[in-house]
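Closing statement on the iron/sulfur cluster sub-project.
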Amino acid sequence: MKDPDSKERSALKQKLKREAAKLGINLTGFANVERWEEYGYTAPEFYPQSIWPWARTVMVMGVQIFLPMLETTPSVVYSELYNTTNRMLDETAYKIANLLNTFGYRAHFFPRDCYGDISVLVKKPEAAFSHVIAGYYAGIGTIGMNHTLITKEYGPRVRMVSVITDAVITPDRIIKSNLCVGCMQCVKNCPVKAFTPSKEGLAADMDKHKCALYHQQLKGEFRYPCGKCTAVCPVGEDRKIYGRSSVTEDGIRHVRSFGSMTGGQFSVS
Ligand code: SF4
Ligand code: SF4
C-alpha cells in the first residue's frame, strides 16, 4: 500500500474524478473509512474496513435518474432505466477499480443491487453495504425523509456505486445543511404507506418489509422498482429542465440539521 503525500493525494483525486466524468458519472465524492466509525450510522460489521481491513477510502459515484422516465413508474420504461443505471454504475466502478490497480493500489467495488433476488429482501430487507450512507460520508448529499440520498443537483434521483481502495485520498466535506425540506410528499405518495413520520420530525420510520413486498409484486409484473418517493421529491436542479416545480437552493428550508435527524433513526439501502 502506498501512502502518498497531500500533493499526490490531490492529483490522484482529480485524476479519478476526471476519469469518472469521462465515463458518464454525474456526481463523485470521497470518504475516508474513519467516517463510518466516527458517525456510526451503520453497525460495525458493515464498516468497509470491517470487511476489508486494508480499506482507507471509499469513492462514491452517482448517475442521475431521468425524471420524465421515473415519473412513469411503475412501468417497464423506468424498469429499463433502473437496469441501465445499475449496469453502467457497476461497469464504471469496475473500470475505476481497475485503474487504481494499475497505479499500484488495492481496489474493488461494491456492486449495485447485491441481494440476489427480491424474495431475499422480502425475508430480510437489509443492505450489506449502504451506498446512501457512503454518499453522505462522501459529501454528495444528505439523507432525506424517504431514506434516500438527497442531492442539490438531482434530489433523490441518483443511483450510486462505491469503489473501495487502500489509496489515501483527501475526503470531501460532509454537507451539514439538510437538503430535505420536510414537505412530506414522499410520505403521502407512497402507494403502500411504508413511511410513518416520527414525532420528533426526524427521518420517517420506514416499513422496509412493506416496500419489499410491493417490489416483489412489481417484479412479477415486469415493472420493478417503484421509486415513487423519489419521483415526487421537489428538491433538485433537474426539475427545472423539465419545467417541474422545484425547491431552489434559496428556497430550501433547513428545517433540521442532519445531526439532529439521525441517531440510528433511518435505515437505507
Ligand atoms: S419505493 Fe415505493 S413502496 Fe418503497 S417506500 Fe418508496 S414509494 Fe413506498
Ligand atoms: S419529498 Fe419532501 S420530505 Fe420527502 S425527501 Fe423530498 S424533500 Fe424530504
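The chain has a mean pLDDT of 88. With this model delivered, the sub-project is considered complete and its resources will be redirected to Aim 3.
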